[in-house]
Amino acid sequence: MTYRAPITDILNTLRTVAPDGAFDEDLWGMIVGEAGKVAGDRLAPVNQSGDAVGAKLGESGVVVPEVYRDAYAAIREGGWMGLPFPEAFGGQDLPRVLALTVLEMFQAANLALGLAPLLSLGSIEALLAHGSPEQQAMYLPRLISGEWTGTMNLTEPQAGSDVGALKTKAVPNDDGSFAISGQKIYITWGEHNLADNIIHLVLARLPDAPPGTKGVSLFVCPRRLVNTDGSLGETNAVKCIGLENKIGIHGSPTCVMEYDGAKAWLVGEPNRGMAAMFTMMNSARVNVGVQGVGIADAAYQAALAYARDRKQGSSPGVDGMAPIVRHPDVQRMLLSMRAKALASRAICYACAAAADAVEMGDASAQAREDLLTPLAKAYGTDVGVEAAGLGVQVHGGMGFMNETLAAQLFRDARIGPIYEGTNGIQAIDLVGRKLATDGGEAMKALLGEVERSAEAARASNDAALAEAGRRLVAAVAAVGAATDWMLQAFKADRSKALYAATRYQAEASVVVGVHFLLQMAMQAAERGASEAGEYAQLAAFLAVEDLFDGDLAAVLEASALSAGAMGDSLVAG
Amino acid sequence: MTYRAPITDILNTLRTVAPDGAFDEDLWGMIVGEAGKVAGDRLAPVNQSGDAVGAKLGESGVVVPEVYRDAYAAIREGGWMGLPFPEAFGGQDLPRVLALTVLEMFQAANLALGLAPLLSLGSIEALLAHGSPEQQAMYLPRLISGEWTGTMNLTEPQAGSDVGALKTKAVPNDDGSFAISGQKIYITWGEHNLADNIIHLVLARLPDAPPGTKGVSLFVCPRRLVNTDGSLGETNAVKCIGLENKIGIHGSPTCVMEYDGAKAWLVGEPNRGMAAMFTMMNSARVNVGVQGVGIADAAYQAALAYARDRKQGSSPGVDGMAPIVRHPDVQRMLLSMRAKALASRAICYACAAAADAVEMGDASAQAREDLLTPLAKAYGTDVGVEAAGLGVQVHGGMGFMNETLAAQLFRDARIGPIYEGTNGIQAIDLVGRKLATDGGEAMKALLGEVERSAEAARASNDAALAEAGRRLVAAVAAVGAATDWMLQAFKADRSKALYAATRYQAEASVVVGVHFLLQMAMQAAERGASEAGEYAQLAAFLAVEDLFDGDLAAVLEASALSAGAMGDSLVAG
Predict the structure, then answer these.
(1) C-alpha–C-alpha distance, residues A466 and A456, integer Å
(2) B187 three-state secondary structure
(3) Distance (Å, rounded) from C-alpha A317 to C-alpha A320?
(4) Percentage of chain A with pLDDT > 90?
(5) Which residue of A74, B217, B512, B535 has the fewest C-beta atoms within 10 A of its own C-beta?
(6) CB distance B329–A245 less than 8 Å?
(7) CB contact under 8 A, B566 and A327
């Protein structure tokens, strides 16, 4: 059993969330189909074997599983890195949301390997937005072609979520370059043997930099220096000095990087490194959110195949032992995995589609992208962890054995809620920045959309649509009231709001997820597509299982009061 | 940071749930305290080192981490295996609930090693209940002393949850013994180098056995044959031919066992092996439930210590970077871990206490033990997985690194919901056997208790108690109505009931857990104990976070209908 890309679901999601008029059935269908083949035929087959071997640090540096070589070549040769980037640098100028589908499929098929292009995308975006024309000309074509890969170097031992605490130094050289010295940790694909060069984007402090985030600058630091004719020069003073031993993503080298006076060039303005990071944060976060979606989908596929194959116990209408897929509790788990994968996918795609809308000239979509970003990242990765856990459970004892894909997905999924801003930080971002900045305007606009599809579904003759709609009408009202509570709480007592932020984020995500599923169901019904019935039923299932049914604002208030009353007792040793 | 046994919590829980008059503060306090020292000082320090080494299968058989030798000696030398067993065989005739506290602490400190005594307990119980006097005399003293260990051999590749599908054969020898041939899988501590002998309890089929569970017999099969003078004779034809590579519990050898005409003796009546298994199932399940409790507690301790130590970001009233324990979202996670550990512990202990009540002559407590068993197993292990996940999350990036205890606990915890009957099977047992057998009488009696403590708490002057009580009054009514729905559904349409069984089990567990926490809080207040306030607040927190607030029966009905409508689409390839 290997992963097969869910082409129909992906296209249906795109159809629902793409900016008006952007969905191009023929072109997008072709691209999604081709990327799906690469994912299923080239990346997925080496997912488990790569995990078993893992990345290794040897005498000559980091070596990743040799089976990745051909798989990475498939990504590179297909030009898959370049989808959303300018043609001027070898890209294809296609929408972000389409590129996101490719990223989902690649990461679903092979998360450890899929992180290599993910990190390259971040470097490309940083250089596109902030690099000088010379830097762009030097690095972008070969990053976009996949000939080289990129990394992001933020974290240091004392500076994780708190990036401003970093200490790495950048001292000016005479030639306009800088010498970077310091240690960075948790650097994904920080070193490897699949590409000729690795382009590090590094946050560091200039000698006269003010403390905190206001004194952080961004630098580009190639592993091998690039001569003016484009040929590769000497190896730079940056190397991996240790690999982490992790719960999962064993094929992805997570490096401790040592910079020992490495030659680097300032990207953008001095002391504006954090701002540069922020410009790429939205896309990095949705890219990680879609990892969770992909893991959930892969876990669903593996669990369904196992449940159809594995015979245990009896079932009415079956002679002898029945496949466990006939057992109601197994079906419940499978449906939960599938419904959540669909709902979280739609949120992630809607987030990227909002970014596309901005690029297409709809400036008002920026607030929507900003708002959907924490939901996409947190809900997507939470769904990934939850679905991977259910996948293990469907497998029973086999699921605990590392030889099953289910076990690997369970281990791989767990990083999602942690990196690219923990899901708790997403909740702080949602409440403290996205809601507070515009007084909840973008959220209320989104909830207004939800309300309209809830009302439309409720009025439907289809029983499942009506059930989902009825529950969503109540739940969206509860989230609306909770939004008012949250705005008020954040003004009156910030920490009270923050106690309740994660719960609020989770409930808002389910409401938005059910909304998109309903939209997909109703649109499929309108065009007579065969998926309509299943989507409607899955929307009803998710609505019943997960929508909050009650006074959410009151629960948030009580929860914050209760937790707040005990906070000090935890602080005191 | 290593595990410290939560002596005060354990004793407070015992005080609340022990059979009337059984709690002996001095004796029990001494025993819990001493066992806690063994757990903290001897077992916990080798938890991570044992995990890093893992069990290995070499030329001369299975070798477990050498650091376990001293730790296992501490268990053996302290006589800790013998607590609940008859003095006649070297035991101490102490209550089961007290023995359960010891098991919790040992498994919290070191789950992989703690599984060795756990499996021995199962063998001892089987032989106590069904062994002949000769078998008891031959095996029990040295199993109870810990000189030998025991195993349970049920599972075969085609026979997991469906034990009746097993194929291992038992052919009579001329001397009254039997020759066992076949392969057993997932045999925990099936072979190791910490004890002189291993006593296998094996399910197999006699030549003339009827098919299914009615043709399964139980045998005792020592690894080394025992001479009539008690000395060890030749090695039996049973050995480990493979070790599983698992997500966690790496130090615990999970063996593929090959029986090649191994000499064994029938335990109990022919073809009554399943019944023999059932007699020990309750205690085995609560023993696994308490693993989850222990993991949750250990994860809480590790996360709290890390959160107090790790500095990131700022907090009002703190100069410079603040420890992350000051962040509201981190506090929320810690409180959730602690509240659930307490609630699930109380359910597990209450289950064992009911078994003690039966032994003390209260036959009516049997139905209570039977009812609490699936809740103890499923809720305990679910809490273990959830709390271990939160523990990883509190650690951020460090939590994904195998060097942290948090990461190990996350990996170790995942087996809990799978073995000793998956949690889905617990739900089937709860609904199909425990509720259906007595028409819900035992459940209604339990919910009556819950209702009384909810009413008492609601009437309290203490705000936290009143809040928890108010919510529990509503939730217990909802679970009561859901119980009626479930009884009705099980009669009318079994599969409908089974779609909703897991959700029902989960909601019932929270209701019972909050009830016990409230009892602990109110009793602590009565005797002026300083824990009263914290327990009340944790009860309120758990009530707000986890109690279902709405019409549960309607949700179960809708959920079952929704899942049922899609079931066939999953079955069809």
Answers:
(1) 8
(2) strand
(3) 10
(4) 95
(5) A74
(6) no
(7) no
Contact A190, A240 (CB under 8 A): yes
Chain A touched by B470 (CB under 8 Å): no
| Contact assessment for residue A239 and residue A187, using Cβ atoms and an 8 Å cutoff | no
Chain B CB contacts of A567 below 8 Å? 326, 328, 331
CA atoms within 13 A on the CB side of B227: 6
Neighboring chain A residues of B244 at a CB cutoff of 8 Å: 401
- 3-state secondary structure at position A199: strand
Averages of pLDDT over runs of 10 residues in chain A (573 residues) are 93 98 97 98 98 97 98 97 97 98 98 97 96 98 98 94 94 98 98 98 97 96 96 98 98 98 98 89 94 98 97 85 95 98 98 97 96 98 98 98 98 98 97 96 98 98 97 98 98 96 98 98 97 97 95 96 93 78
Chain A hits for B499, CB-CB cut-off 8 Å, are 328-329, 331-332
Q: Is B493 on the interface with A (CB under 8 A)?
A: no
The rounded distance, in Å, linking the Cα atoms of B511 and B547 is: 7
| SS3 state of residue B185 | strand
Average pLDDT estimate for B370-378: 98
Dump pLDDT digits (tens) for B73-84.
Answer: 999 999 999 999
The owner of tokens 């892969």 is A298
A160 touches chain B (CB under 8 A): yes
- A396 touching B, CB under 8 A? yes
Pairing of strands A169-172, A178-188: antiparallel
Alpha carbon distance B127, B138 (integer Å): 10
Q: How far apart are CA B471 and CA B482, in angstroms?
A: 16
Question: What's the pLDDT tens digit per position in B97-107?
Answer: 999 999 999 99
Residue type, A217: S
Backbone angles phi, psi at A416, to 5 degrees: -50, -50
Q: Flag whether residue A21 sits within 8 Å of chain B, measured between CB atoms.
A: no
ipTM above 0.95, yes or no: yes
CA distances from A466 to A246, A456, A518 (A): 46, 8, 10
CA atoms within 13 A on the CB side of B108: 36
Q: Best mutation site among B385, B566, B569 for testing chain A: the one with the most A CBs within 10 Å?
A: B566
Q: What is the 3-state secondary structure (H, E, C) of A317-343?
A: CCCCCCEHHHCHHHHHHHHHHHHHHHH
CB contact under 8 A, A311 and B534: no
Domains of chain B: 7-144 (1.10.540.10), 149-276 (2.40.110.20), 279-295+338-562 (no CATH)
pLDDT score of B252: 98
Nearest residue of B to residue A254 by CA position?
B401
Q: How far is B495 from chain A (nearest CA, A)?
A: 6
Checking if the pLDDT of B124 tops 70, the result is yes
Q: Which helix (H) or strand (E) holds A180?
A: strand A178-188
pLDDT over threshold 90, residue B202 = yes
Q: pLDDT (tens digit, 9 = 90+) per residue, B387-424?
A: 999 999 999 999 999 999 999 999 999 999 999 999 99
Residue B213 near residue B202 (C-beta atoms within 8 A): no
